[in-house]
Amino acid sequence: MTPAEEIKSRLDIVDVLGEYIELKPSGANYKARCPFHQEKSASFMVSKPKQMWHCFGCGEGGDIFSFVMKQEGLEFPDALRLLGTKAGVRVTTEAPEKRTERERVGRVLAMAIQFWQETLWNSDEAREAREYLQNTRQILPATIRDWRLGFAPNSWDALVTFLAKQGVADEDMIRAGVAAHKMATRGRSVYDRFRNRIMFPLTNAHGQVVGATGRAMPGTEAEAKYVNTPETLLYKKGEVLYGLDRAKTVVRTDGVVIVVEGNVDVITSHQAGIKNVVAASGTALTGEQVRLIKRYTPKVAFAFDTDSAGEAATMRGLIAALENGLEVLLIGLPTGAKGKTFKDPDECIRENPELWRSAIAKAEPLLDTLFRRASEDRDLTKLEDKREVARSLLPVVARVPDVIAKNHYLKRLSALVGVPEGDLRQLLPASKSVTQRPAAASNVSSSRPIDVLRNLSERLIALVFAAPKEAKFVFDEIEPEFLAPELSALYKLMVVFYTRESAEQPPAWQGDAFRQTLANEPNAGVLLQTLDVLSLRAESDFSLLPEADIQRELNETVRRLRKRKLQERLQRLEQEIRIAESATPRDETRLRELVTQFQNDSAALTTLDF
């Protein structure tokens, strides 16, 4: 992770920009008056899930770095250092050789993942692993392939030999975390880190493979059930949530992320259609993971194995999430048909996925669970039991950042132990005052002239994003050349995508398939950025409009775009007619064609003047 990436993972754009301008909630986003041009109504939008900002008045936009650079008048290195100090990240310039090493680690990991995949499907030695995944864990072959699961054979050198044949140096195998140094000097100097294990590739939030987890085969005597690649240039254990790259879109839509303990819990949940599930990979939730979750949702629900070790560490993770402003829920695993409580979500799903869905629906706030557990098997008429309940709950209540919620639970604790609320409040740690540094003076420029065609083009695409089922109507009415040149490329790809994949159902413009379509284009960066900006406009301007209002907006935008195009064509035809009339000799046939076209377009324009 580069310093810039680490800073963005630690800082939330709403917090950073909120130190400079007054942000007000607007649906799922935030709105403000733009600090970079004069305007009466707010057109400056900030997206917390996408960690981006854009002003639809002046067209400026970007991330936290571009905002601070423009607001403070800094170059990127200075903005990097400023935000690095705020985030607690030491900023140093990465040497070219370090970038090269990072790329080599990524290539070695990719080769290892491919080797393990092919071994799982093609090796007789992996038969037991295939049967375990498909029969015992009930993971479908398509799901196994989709999640790129593999098998590390029970060999000391199968992988390292394969990699060596591909020209990979021993030291690069070690740097990638797939091999370890031998103590003996005879033979190869490295050996396979993973042996006789089912392999799970680990990816970051962007889908880049950064490491792997190996699960010991059932019935084998392994030192550890799960083994991860050691920390490398790409992999930091406390910064990865398994499955987040696949879950993040649904998390944004559903408004909650479900955190489970095991990788298989994630896979079988997704297979069952519950796709907002990620795993902490057997660790207590870290501060980095909490900050990562906050980028996508303010609500997190936890479901940990009933036989999970390290309950105290797990609780610290839950409290850290609560303290960082997340709404924290707990999911209680249900009881099966035979009266046995499931030990993990995967076991529950294998019996009946609806039981897992029901458990998720019944998730309760963390504090409610703690209050219930604290008072269970306690006699609250006894002084010592009252003290124990107060001792266990007060530290948690003290760390609730929301004042209303804190007061609610103080009143509840007061009623529970029979102690006045004011007395309990005195036992809370003193609240830290939150100060906000004054906003920096900004160079407010005068309003820029509005580019009408670009504004109409942006509006049309944003409306299609907000109302996907209207895509056919729009595509039938508007040709790509009707739009501003800088948006026609995206529009063309939308038409192609709709024709190819979405003719019978509304297209998923924010889905992985369309994003991948854009990612395959030479100008992918610009296209994906434009997609995010116009999606933000769709959310801010149209997400709350009734269907009838959106239809009216679409009709009006289509009308104005068609009218502009006809007016442009009439001006061009008029000029061509004058040239044809003055030509010697005159081409009467060509002149009649131009006049006929002019009359037809004039008539069409008349129908649009209402």
Automatic annotation (TrEMBL):
Superkingdom per UniProt: Bacteria
HAMAP family: DNA_primase_DnaG (MF_00974)
Family membership: Belongs to the DnaG primase family.
Gene3D superfamilies: 3.40.1360.10, DNA primase, catalytic core, N-terminal domain, Zinc finger, CHC2-type domain
Domain spans labelled Toprim: 255-336
Coiled-coil residue spans: 556-583
EC number: 2.7.7.101
GO cellular component terms, semicolon-separated: cytoplasm; DNA-directed RNA polymerase complex; primosome complex
SMART domains noted in UniProt: TOPRIM (SM00493), ZnF_CHCC (SM00400)
Quaternary structure annotation from Swiss-Prot or TrEMBL: Monomer. Interacts with DnaB.
A molecular function GO annotation: DNA binding
ZnF (CHC2-type) ranges: 34-58
Co-factor remark: Binds 1 zinc ion per monomer.
Keywords noted in UniProt: Coiled coil, DNA replication, DNA-binding, DNA-directed RNA polymerase, Magnesium, Metal-binding, Nucleotidyltransferase, Primosome, Transcription, Transferase, Zinc, Zinc-finger
Reactions catalysed according to its record: ssDNA + n NTP = ssDNA/pppN(pN)n-1 hybrid + (n-1) diphosphate
Cofactors named for this entry: Zn(2+)
Family annotation (InterPro entries): DNA_primase_core_N_sf (IPR037068), DNA_primase_DnaB-bd (IPR019475), DNA_primase_DnaG (IPR006295), DNA_primase_DnaG_DnaB-bd_dom (IPR013173), DNA_primase_Znf_CHC2 (IPR036977), DnaG_bac (IPR030846), DNAG_N (IPR013264), DnaG_primase (IPR050219)
Free-text comment about domains: Contains an N-terminal zinc-binding domain, a central core domain that contains the primase activity, and a C-terminal DnaB-binding domain.
Function description: RNA polymerase that catalyzes the synthesis of short RNA molecules used as primers for DNA polymerase during DNA replication.
Protein's name according to its UniProt entry: DNA primase
Organism the protein comes from: Candidatus Uhrbacteria bacterium CG10_big_fil_rev_8_21_14_0_10_48_11
Gene Ontology biological-process annotations: DNA replication, synthesis of primer
